[in-house]
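dumping this here so i dont lose it
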């Protein structure tokens, strides 16, 4: 276990944070600290019980006594179980940034929250391929994501074959969607085991930078 403690939040009259992590890379934990710093420096105040969105993840502020801390969803069970760590949050944010940077979309990330919903095909667990398409959200709760299986004979226009579920529940079933969740409206992604993902934006194919994160097959 490692700890990262902020040192400059007190200059804004705010209690410092101490972030606990085990497997995350320190530079990724520093990004989380920067997000906290930006929130505080722009007038936000964080207290125990508050939530803060980091990438797509939703973290909850906890009281460590002298410091504040963050706990995150376990990403192991639904409903959410909270754990005293930022490991998954840091890793998911790194994957999302790496995926976007592969296509030169780092400045276009548009993160939904894991509590937002997606329309999900009932058969995504039965095929190796996943089709993702993001449109303008229908409501504040909707992420805009439509996630389907790769079976072209499966009727994805039928309400009987679709259901709404949280992005959190979706990531438990199909972790391969995680890198793409922050891609902007107009994104289409096709992910298939042992193949490089294909990503389009407003119908135009995006070419990943050579040897970048998306320039290789991803696991489903």
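and the seq i came up w/
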């Amino acid at each position: 276990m490692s700890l990262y403690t902020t040192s400059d939040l007190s200059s804004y009259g705010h209690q410092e944070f101490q972030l606990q992590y085990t497997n995350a890379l320190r530079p990724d934990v520093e990004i989380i600290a920067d997000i906290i710093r930006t929130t505080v420096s722009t007038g936000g105040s964080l207290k125990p019980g508050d939530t803060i969105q980091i990438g797509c993840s939703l973290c909850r502020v906890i009281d460590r006594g002298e410091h504040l801390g963050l706990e995150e969803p376990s990403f192991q069970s639904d409903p959410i179980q909270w754990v005293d760590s930022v490991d998954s949050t840091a890793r998911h944010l790194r994957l999302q940034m790496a995926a976007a940077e592969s296509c030169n979309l780092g400045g276009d990330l548009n993160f939904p929250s894991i509590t937002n919903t997606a329309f999900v095909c009932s058969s995504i667990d039965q095929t190796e391929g996943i089709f993702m398409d993001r449109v303008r959200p229908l409501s504040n709760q909707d992420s805009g994501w439509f996630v389907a299986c790769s079976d072209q004979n499966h009727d994805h226009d039928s309400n009987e074959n679709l259901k709404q579920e949280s992005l959190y529940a979706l990531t438990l079933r199909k972790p391969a969607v995680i890198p793409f969740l922050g891609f902007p409206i107009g994104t289409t992604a096709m992910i298939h085991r042992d193949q490089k993902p294909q990503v389009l934006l407003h119908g135009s194919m995006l070419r990943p930078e050579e040897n970048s994160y998306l320039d290789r097959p991803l696991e489903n």
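The longest helix spans residues 26-41.
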